[in-house]
Amino acid sequence: MERLGPDFFELPTLLLAERLLGKIFVRREAPGSPLLKGRIVETEAYLGEEDEASHAWRGLTRRNRAMFGPPGTLYIYFSYGCHHLANIVSEPEGTAGAVLLRAMEPVEGIERMRLNRRTEDPRLLMSGPGRLTQALGIGPDLYAESLLGQRCWIEDAPEVPPEMIGTSQRIGISRSTHLPWRKFVSGSAHLSKRAISGGRKKAGVRR
Asked: Is residue 207 classed exposed, middle or buried when 0-12, 13-18 and 19+ CB atoms within 10 A define those classes?
């Protein structure tokens, strides 16, 4: 499949969160190692100063500097002392924005993912932001890594039909909870959470 280039990642954050659905995230853990691939089925958008759930809402810090980097950069952070989470940076360089990868459907390299996750259940391999990074071997060494490189990239795939795209409030946050910035493939067995209050079908991209 064709790799997605820099133009794709330059989309506005809320639109990128939607357009990433159905695309294939590719990870090569080491030179010459088999590829690990997951189809993105759930995302969440995070912006800057007006989004209190975002790491960047108070401005630039040492921790969040990758969020202000070039579009297509990985922003990795440690959450709740137990999981690394992966975000794809958006917005022009110098402006904070990122899309959290919340869930994927395993596509290739599943045996390796099972070893990384220590589970045989395919529904538990990538159905959550911490699970998918563990399955793909994503950690702090990939902080600020470019998705235009050789360790991680995104492959193109057919767009998810609009009628299959769901929208809801984001999950697991305590601020800016009213914003409908979670996007997901409706009916996917690999979502981190099947339904929450406020979930609905796509009603257009909001910003």
From this structure: exposed
CB 56 within 8 A of CB 96: yes
The domain spans of the chain are: 6-159
Torsion of CA 51, 55, 57, 58, to 10 degrees: 160
Would the CA dihedral through 99, 101, 102, 106 be positive or negative? Answer: positive
pLDDT at 202 over 80: no
Class of domain 6-159: alpha beta
Residue 137 has a pLDDT of 97
pTM: 0.91
Residues 117-145 as b/e (b if ≥16 CB within 10 A, e otherwise) read beeeeeeebbbbbbbbbbbbbbeeebbeb
Residue type (1 letter), 66: A
Higher pLDDT, 79 or 152: 152
Query: pLDDT, tens digit, for every residue of 44-53?
Result: 999 987 887 7
36: three-class secondary structure by DSSP: strand
DSSP 77-91: EEETTTEEEEEEE-S
